[in-house]
Amino acid sequence: MSVRKIIHIDMDAFYASVEQRDNPDYRGKPIAVGGSPEGRGGVVATASYEARKYGVRSAMPSKRALQLCPQIIFVSPRFAAYREVSQHVREIFRRYTDLIEPLSLDEAYLDVTEDKLNIGSAIAIAQQIKQAIRDELRLTASAGVSVNKFVAKIASDMQKPDGLTFIAPSQVESFMENLPVEKFFGVGKVTADKMKRMNLHTGADLKKLTENDLVQHFGKTGRFYFKIVRGQDDRPVQPHRETKSVGAEDTFPHDLTTLEEMYPELDKIALTVANRLQKHQLKGKTVTLKIKYSDFRQITRNQSLPHGINDLETIVVTARQLLVKTDPADVRIRLLGITLSNFGEEKPETGQLSLF
Ligand SMILES: [Mg+2]
Fold it and tell me: Would you identify the family this protein belongs to, as annotated (predicted)?
């Protein structure tokens, strides 16, 4: 198989950068786009680089961000603005290739093995895309350029912000060998800790294990690790990657102990899910209920229906039935979530649906 040219582009501190661009008062200051720390408290979606210096990170509770950086400014997200920028960025991508796989509003893979303008050099294309984003949108992006998605994505993160990192085909294997296991994206903290307990710290350590060893310890993902540490990742850039599921969940300030408390919370979550499904014109056949108990034990239960649904009432009824079947007497619930999946034939606009 011939060598591919893959670019991963990632906008730098995307939501925060758009806010700083559009509001001079925010420039050069620590800001966090996301929920405010008041009341039950929101979470940080994106922190500006000024805020990151204080240790503020995405997905951190806003209350914690305020402790770390008392002068931080909280800004409510403006998704319409981010979507508009995202569309413009995609239009820039399309000048070079139609093989674009968006991962979210601010991230995408591009396959430029063959590019529309016959530039031939993936590095030159990445430079031009970065320049166009700067000129036309007054924002910066970081690019990773390599032979597959995995390495390109890791590379884009290496010299942020405004970076461009190229990992040549001949460097891929040694690059993977030297990579610390926690840098493998998709390896969560739990798996990384497990690897370290097994004395596996880098790609080179993983490489010493057989495929069977890896599968035994890490399940079917082990097969993926086996290939990836050898620089093998033949996953194609998929321009029409479908949305696979739409969901919402909520963590409660106090554990829920009775059905009377659980039903209204479940209904609220169902409403969020129904709104999202309807906005994206999706109907799912499978309803999944997630429950996390006060001891952090987690279960999921699902029910598949004969037809796809996206109406509030059916989601509520199905989710309530699933909840009742878990025998919710004498339990303390700290989180509930509902997800719809199994969308069937429809091909919606690509991209993951964020958790807002
Ligand atoms: Mg980003």
Answer: Belongs to the DNA polymerase type-Y family.
Q: Average pLDDT of 59-84? A: 93
pLDDT on residue 241: 63
Residue 258's DSSP bridge partners are: none
Ligand 1 center from residue 354 Cα (angstroms):
13
| Residue 233 annotated as part of some ligand binding site | no
Q: Do β-strands 141-146 and 31-34 pair in parallel, antiparallel, or remain unpaired?
A: unpaired
Which long-range contacts link 254-259 to residues 24+ away (Cβ below 8 Å)? 255/294, 255/332, 255/333, 255/334, 256/332, 256/333, 256/334, 256/336, 257/331, 257/332, 257/333, 259/323, 259/324, 259/328
Q: For the chain, how big is the Rg over CA atoms in Å?
A: 22
* Identity of the amino acid at 154: I
Phi, psi of 199 (to 5 degrees): 65, 30
Say yes or no: 143 and 56 in one domain: no
Are 260 and 330 found together in one domain?
yes
- Residues 8-25 have pLDDT tens digits of 999 999 999 999 999 999
Q: Give the environment of ion ligand 1: residues with CB less than 5 A.
A: 10-11, 14, 106
Residue 235 in any domain: the answer is no
CA of 16 to the centre of ligand 1 (A): 10
Domain presence at residue 282: yes
Give this prediction's pTM: 0.71
Residues 249 and 337 in one domain: yes
Active-site annotation, residues: 107
User: Can you tell me which residue has the tokens 């979507």?
Assistant: 83
CATH number, position 62: 3.40.1170.60
CATH code at position 145: 3.30.70.270
Peptide bond into 253 cis (omega under 30): no
Structure confidence by residue, pLDDT tens digits, 259-301: 999 999 999 899 989 888 887 778 899 999 999 998 888 899 9
Q: How far is the CA of 260 from the centre of ligand 1 (A)?
A: 41
123 burial level (CB within 10 Å; 0-12, 13-18, 19+): middle
Any known ligand binding at 10? yes
Residue with tokens 């408290």: 41
Do residues 310 and 278 make contact, with C-beta atoms less than 8 angstroms apart? yes
* Cα 135 to averaged position of ligand 1 atoms, centre (Å): 18
